[in-house]
């Protein structure tokens, strides 16, 4: 029992780590953790709470480690001669120099000593596996949080694009009709079609202007942080092609380039689609202006056209970096120039 307690203590630490990892996996997507203490429900930040729990488990392991290390050293010193003696005794039995009846005792003694000697090592290895699983879970959470912080730009811009698409379709559907019917608060209302659509367009543009500062700031940070990653990964792919690095790493490099490029380029593509929707809307309004005979409606259409030409969603990140498809060309140009410079400095093909 004096030697079994080491296994029990180490297994308790492993079990606590396993529970911590499972709780962390179950609460994925939630930023808080609810727990009950003193018959009261408390709410804390999830990651900070789990960090304190991990710290407590590590403190317990550090507290018991001196006794475990000392007892393991004594156990190794005392157990190795016993193992050697029992194995030698078994060889004597095999050679017929000892009685066959004594082999059972030797085998049982070897099994017992081996279990008491090796079980703490197995328990520690299982602890390390739990820590690795916990680190993997945290990396997955970090990737999810990081990606979601960048994907929201794509989602917000696509919502604006979708609203413009619906507006354009409503303008096309109501061709030849000068009023628009809609329901609000269980009442049917009738308004002038072009004025109503102009106000809708104005509201959509106001929403885009409201979110543009955050999008511009996050896009600028994303460009600054992502370009070195792309250049680094492309250079390592060249190293793999030149057989200076193992071929197995090329899959990870390609996956990383695809992921980073998608998160960087998707807002530019959505903005380009958004500009295409505005062009289609302007084309529809021009067709309505050509077909319309009423002077008041023609004037309203002309105001709508002028408004769309003034507020076109064309923007630059902090008035210097264009947020459209041309940004992808600029990024490709910077990456290719940087890779050429790196190749010349490192003499890759010399």
From the structure above, extract its key features.
mainly alpha, 8% strand, two-stranded antiparallel sheet, 7 helices, two-stranded antiparallel ribbon, 350 residues
Write the layout of secondary structure elements.
Blueprint: H1 4-26, E1 32-37, E2 40-45, H2 46-94, H3 103-173, E3 179-184, E4 187-192, H4 193-241, H5 250-291, H6 295-310, E5 316-317, E6 321-322, H7 326-346
Antiparallel strand pairs: 1-2, 3-4, 5-6
Could you describe the 3D structure shown?
The protein has 7 helices and 6 strands. It is mostly helical and 350 residues long. It folds into 2 domains: 4-135, no CATH class; 174-346, no CATH class. The strands form 3 sheets. Strands 1-2 form a two-stranded antiparallel sheet. It has a two-stranded antiparallel ribbon with strand order 3-4. A two-stranded antiparallel ribbon has the order 5-6. Strand 5 and strand 6 (321-322) form a beta hairpin. The two termini are 67 Å apart. The mean pLDDT is 80.
